[in-house]
Amino acid sequence: MEIKLLILIFYFGILFTIGWWSSKKIKDIKDYYVGGKKLGYWVVAFSTRATGESAWLLLGLTGLGAIAGISAFWVVLGEVLGVSIAWIFMAKRFKRITDKYNSITIPDYLVSRFKSKSNTIRILSSLFLSFFIIVYVSAQIDATGSAFEAFLGWNYFFGAIAGYSIVLLYILFGGFIAVAWSDLIQGSLMFFALCLLPIIGFMSYEISLWEKIESIDSGLVSMWGSGGFNSINLATIIGYLCIGLAFLGSPQIFVRFMSIKNENQINKGKWVAILFTLITDSAAVMIGILARYFFTDAGSDAEAILGNNGQNSLILMVEYLLPVVFVGIYMAVVLAAIMSTVDSLLVLASSAIVRDIYQKILNPKIQIENLTGISRISTFIMASIALIVAILVAISTPERTIFWFVLVGFHGIAASFCPTIILSLFWKGFTEKGAIASMIVGFLGVLFFKFIMPTVEHIGIYFDKIAELAPALLLGLITGYIVSKLYPDKELEDEFLKISK
Fold first, then answer.
1. Rounded distance, CA 107 to CA 357, Å?
2. What is the DSSP letter of 389?
3. 55, 338 in Cβ contact below 8 A?
């Protein structure tokens, strides 16, 4: 216990040092929210992946590997495709346009892109960001409490509050710069920790891995899942592949494209991000499969042994294969994954409230140098609300799983913004009315396809397996196209052709 705590204290000391160092570089709100747009490709690439993966990767995807077996590799394929499309086809165009508009937030970009004469799209995008970020951050705080409980035996609620307090402190000091540099360290820890554990696992088993896995459950070695190829499994695989759609415009990812130094850095960063995703996601699935090998047998209840949806697989593997000092390191890695997402989202939510609501709408005459302090207050309030939500969910829904809890928040943000970002970057005919309609329909679509469609007789099971993101995102794209065609804007088309060159 003492060794674990010492390692954690050392790790948190590094985070606070980053926060203190970053605070020296904060001159104005542009520094606080996008690092002055001066960050290099290593920092941005690792930051996008650390933010995009979070506890979902270390606890959720390892658990899915344990429960689903090799069919979980469909998630890896979906993630790699999503990351590749975002970096190769969208990042440079987004960087170029946001630099021309001098945007420092996503609502900033949308207002400039559509030459908005009202505050509708700024208010709407800010509210959607704030709502789903609270859900998403609360899922990460929930994972923090579970991690402290599993590794140190702490009370869940005490662990959640401790994690919330630690991440909040270094964000308040250093803003986006602290977030980006801490993400580089946290992403590096995640990468090496995930790569190391399967190697040790492969060196430790005695009989054929796949022979035993097949004897436990033949479905674990089928690419289609248990039961082979059928309509339900096909729907499940489509859902796995569509997880990568969330990277095609999610604000917490794309704000990092704003922060990078130049387009040349994007050319280099794309390969770092793609390889990071391929290697770490594959390693996570293998950790889950190895957990089934070491801890379960034919007929045993996997979830009773490995936790809800197998989400304790990584923790059990670490404690079984490694000495106690490494257990402390891996606990730091799990917390790093969680915090790398929490810090990013809190800064993003704060920017929506302070920059897009307070400065641009409520108090446009305020001096920009006065906004940094207000940003810190906003960050504290948003984090506190997320903590309360996490505690309430933990009390009311003890059977929740990290994998799906995280995805609800992630999908909500993605379905609200991805259709709008995609169309705004590639279609000259996209209008403000189309963007507003697309965001509203995407937002409502997540709620509809998550809570209503799965209850429909006969077809509900398929929507449950596909999950809410793909149909909500598709509906948002269609709505944006139709409404823009109904209310065209020729002047906006001409402006887009100029700005996108």
1. 10
2. H
3. yes
**Tokens in use for 370?**
């006065």
Q: Over the stretch 109-137, which tens digit does the pLDDT of each residue have?
A: 999 999 998 889 988 988 888 887 787 77
3-state secondary structure of 39: strand
Distances (CA, A) of 13 to 176, 284, 332, 346: 18, 27, 12, 21
How far is 338 from 140, CA to CA, in rounded Å? 6
103-135: b or e for each residue (b if 16 or more CB lie within 10 Å)?
A: bbbbbbbbbbbbebeeeebbbbbbbbbbbbbbb
**Is 70 exceeded by the pLDDT of residue 29?**
no
Separation between Cα atoms, residue 71 and residue 311, nearest integer Å: 17
Inter-CA distances, 295 with 58, 73, 279, Å: 18, 21, 24
Nearest CA to 274 out of 81, 469, 442 is that of: 81
Structure tokens at 200: 């040790």
What are the tens digits of pLDDT across the range 285-326?
999 999 999 999 998 999 999 988 898 899 899 989 988 778
C-alpha 318/C-alpha 333 separation (Å) is 12
pLDDT for position 3: 77
Rg (CA), the chain: 22
pTM of the model: 0.86
Q: Within 10 A of 14 (CB to CB), how many other CB atoms are there?
A: 14
Separation CA 287–CA 111 (nearest Å): 45
Q: How far is 58 from 65, CA to CA, in rounded Å?
A: 11
Decide if 242 contacts 30 (C-beta within 8 A).
Answer: no
What angle do the packed helices 402-426 and 106-113 form, to 10 degrees?
30
Handedness of CA 130, 133, 137, 142 (dihedral sign): positive
pLDDT at position 330, please? Answer: 81
Mean pLDDT of 191-199: 90
Rounded CA-CA distance 7/475 in Å is 47
SS3 426: helix
Secondary structure (DSSP) of 222-253: -TT-TTSS-HHHHHHHHHHHHGGGGGTT-HHH
The three-point CA angle 87-88-93 to 5° equals: 85
| 180 confidence band (pLDDT: 50, 70, 90) | low
**Beta strands in 46-133, from DSSP E residues, in sequence order:** none
